[in-house]
């Protein structure tokens, strides 16, 4: 039985693994794929200590740090189920079964997709799911923000002084967002709000060049250079339903110490409650979860 199993290897899981290795803990790192949101991000300009990088370059830095600390992830192991056993937990992946005294879950979240033509083709070529991460790339450009919730309106608010013109495309008849955000966005002179509009296709050559939406039975084309899709994120927690307490959006409920509803299980990063989806937050939560898991193990020995 391991002291610890870390499930997920984005920045939260990798941070926990680095700290685990430095504490000489008996642990394993299980993941479907190494990298998490590193594989999705374009430019990264807001991580403390790194002036400018990309998701791919950041992943290479973390790969070297994992190697330096002799951490080797068990890739290709997607966890399907967890059960409580005497003295700890049993973890079932698509390949193996493992046991540990404590767990850290850092399985991340995935953007909710529009599933329209051009979306996949132009991902990271003008299509993004993170305004904070990639908004600065659209300086002086015309862009569209797709969505009608808080995250979409926050994306408009964040990019209003970056982009030249913003088209806010909402499929619904009204916004599902805080009133103050709605009032703020409606006051911006460089924002055009298009309600009851269904995005049909993202156009491009090498990069995004436009967007087609349907309204009142007619198709309309916008010429623009970027599309920010903010229609929500889906936490990778399906395998935990009925086992841990999840919030209304299926994120794992945690307290300020990273503890979940079950003693001995901690969570960190985009799969956990908080909904901010920032590298620096995920790294911090990964560190906290590991330190508290180590203290939990020490107290059990006492």
Question: Can you give a write-up of this model?
Answer:
It is a single chain. With 302 residues, this protein is of the alpha/beta class. It folds into two domains: 2-110 and 233-301, FAD/NAD(P)-binding domain, CATH 3.50.50; 113-229, FAD/NAD(P)-binding domain (3-Layer(bba) Sandwich), CATH 3.50.50.60. It contains six helices and 19 strands. It has helices at 11-22, 55-68, 131-134, 150-159, 179-187, 279-301, and strands at residues 2-7, 27-31, 43-44, 53-54, 74-75, 79-85, 88-93, 97-105, 109-111, 127-128, 142-146, 165-169, 191-194, 198-204, 208-215, 218-223, 226-229, 233-235, 265-267. Strands 1, 2, 5, 6, 7, 8 and 19 form a seven-stranded mixed sheet that branches. Strands 10-17-11-12-13 form a five-stranded parallel sheet, covered by helices on one side. The chain has a three-stranded antiparallel sheet with strand order 14-15-16, with no helix packed on it. The model has no long low-confidence stretch (mean pLDDT 95).
Give the beta-strand count. Answer: 19
Distance between the termini: 18 Å
Globular, elongated, flat, extended or rod-shaped: what is the shape?
elongated
Could you say what the CATH topology of the largest domain is called? FAD/NAD(P)-binding domain
Number of helical elements: 6
How would you classify the helix and strand content by structural class? Answer: alpha/beta
Q: Could you report the average pLDDT, rounded to the nearest whole number?
A: 95
Provide the CATH architecture of the largest domain: 3-Layer(bba) Sandwich
Relative helix content: 10-25%
CATH fourth-tier homologous superfamily of the largest domain: FAD/NAD(P)-binding domain
CATH class term of the largest domain:
Alpha Beta
Order of helices and strands: EHEEEHEEEEEEHEHEHEEEEEEEH
Q: Hey, roughly how much beta strand do the residues contain?
A: 25-35%
Rg, Cα atoms, Å: 21 Å
Q: What is the count of structural domains?
A: 2
Q: Major sheet, described briefly?
A: 7 strands, mixed
Task: Please mark out the parts with pLDDT under 50 across 5 or more consecutive residues, or reply none.
Answer: none
């Amino acid at each position: 039985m391991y002291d610890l199993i870390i499930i997920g290897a984005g920045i939260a899981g990798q941070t926990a693994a680095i700290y685990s290795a430095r504490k000489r803990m008996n642990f394993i790192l299980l993941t479907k794929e190494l990298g998490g949101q590193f594989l999705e991000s374009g430019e990264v300009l807001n991580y403390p200590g790194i002036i400018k990088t990309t998701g791919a370059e950041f992943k290479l830095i973390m790969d070297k740090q994992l190697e330096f600390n002799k951490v080797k992830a068990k890739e290709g192991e997607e966890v399907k189920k967890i059960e409580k056993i005497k003295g700890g937990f049993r973890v079932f992946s698509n390949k193996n079964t493992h046991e540990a005294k404590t767990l850290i879950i850092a399985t991340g979240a995935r953007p909710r997709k529009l599933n329209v033509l051009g979306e996949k083709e132009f991902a990271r070529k003008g299509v993004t799911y993170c305004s904070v991460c990639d908004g600065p790339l659209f300086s002086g450009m015309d862009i569209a923000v797709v969505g009608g919730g808080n995250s979409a309106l926050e994306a408009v608010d964040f990019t209003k002084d970056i982009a030249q013109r913003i088209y806010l495309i909402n499929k619904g008849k009204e916004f599902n967002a805080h009133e103050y955000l709605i009032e703020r966005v409606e006051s911006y002179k460089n924002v055009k709000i298009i309600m009851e509009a269904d995005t049909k296709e993202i156009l491009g050559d090498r990069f995004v060049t436009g967007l087609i939406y349907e309204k009142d039975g007619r198709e309309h084309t916008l010429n623009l250079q970027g599309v920010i899709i903010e229609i929500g994120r889906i936490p990778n927690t399906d395998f935990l339903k009925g086992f841990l307490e999840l919030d209304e959006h299926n994120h794992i409920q945690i307290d300020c110490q990273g503890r979940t509803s079950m003693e001995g299980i901690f969570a960190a990063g985009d799969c956990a409650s908080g909904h901010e989806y920032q590298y620096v937050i995920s790294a911090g939560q990964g560190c906290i979860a590991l330190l508290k898991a180590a203290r939990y193990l020490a107290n059990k020995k006492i």
